[in-house]
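re: the backbone from monday

yeah here it is again, tokenized this time
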């Protein structure tokens, strides 16, 4: 039987001061035991990246940023570049989170540039896709995600495909307490793989991690991990509490 591996990612959004981040880290580390098949990247706000870089260390643990600019440097007041977040300790970066699509009007052409820049900077991009409630209800969710994949991912070499992670986050399940059913999530994950296989016939997508995100909690994480199409989770609200996040990590560790 082939062994499964998981990514359990925590997206803190605009929560936690540096001091709160360090407290979270010591609580998490007090009980965390690594397992080789589970990677745990945490995405704090920019200001907590460097302080956490010194504290949040151990096998399987890493840090990511929640955004980056598409250029490497320039006169862009208020922006942060890939090399800057790399220097601050990030190995990963979220790209295309629905909150940035919604509040910063980020669209696929820009997101494709950001994925390119992230890879060029040695970061692992986690590209987020997902439909709105209206799109789900009118039945256009498969087309919407297909469009986000085809327009938001730039041309990549086989090695670069090997560094990309996708996260399916239906907008109606984010922060609402309403999780997609395992069937809905796994059907979309299968759709994502099929779209990519059809459009990139020379690439093997067997190993491409596809995470599910949207109201993941210790109580529902296990059934998500049990599904072979789901390679991990992107956790928002429940990652803010060290104990809840650790409980989700342990659910993944129990599965192999
Ligand atoms: P949630 O957020 O777990 O609070 O729903 C997930 C996300 O936005 O990444």
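seq for it, each position gets an aa:
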């Amino acid at each position: 039987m082939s062994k499964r591996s998981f990514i359990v990612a925590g997206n803190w959004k605009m929560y936690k001061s540096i001091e709160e981040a360090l407290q979270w880290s010591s609580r998490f580390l007090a009980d965390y035991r690594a397992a080789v098949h589970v990677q745990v990247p945490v995405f704090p706000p920019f200001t907590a990246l460097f302080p956490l870089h010194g504290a949040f260390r151990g096998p399987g643990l890493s840090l990511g940023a929640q955004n980056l600019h598409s250029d490497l440097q320039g006169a862009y007041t208020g922006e942060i570049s890939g090399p800057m977040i790399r220097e601050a300790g990030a190995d990963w970066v979220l790209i295309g989170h629905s909150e940035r699509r919604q509040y910063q009007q980020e669209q696929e052409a820009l997101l494709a540039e950001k994925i390119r820049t992230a890879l060029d900077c040695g970061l692992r991009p986690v590209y987020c896709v997902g439909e709105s409630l209206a799109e789900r209800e009118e039945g256009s969710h498969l087309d919407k995600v297909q469009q986000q994949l085809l327009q938001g991912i730039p041309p990549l070499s086989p090695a670069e495909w090997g560094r990309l992670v996708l996260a399916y986050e239906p907008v109606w399940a984010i922060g609402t307490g309403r999780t997609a059913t395992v069937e809905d999530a796994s059907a979309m994950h299968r759709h994502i793989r099929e779209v990519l296989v059809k459009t990139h016939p020379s690439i093997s997508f067997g190993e491409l991690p596809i995470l599910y995100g949207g109201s993941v909690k210790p109580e529902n994480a296990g059934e998500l991990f049990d599904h072979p199409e789901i390679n991990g989770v992107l956790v928002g609200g429940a990652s803010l509490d060290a104990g809840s996040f650790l409980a989700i990590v342990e659910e993944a560790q129990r599965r192999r």
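The first strand starts at residue 6 and ends at 11. The pocket of 2-phosphoglycolic acid is lined by residues 11, 169, 174-175, 213-216, 234-238 (CB under 6 Å).
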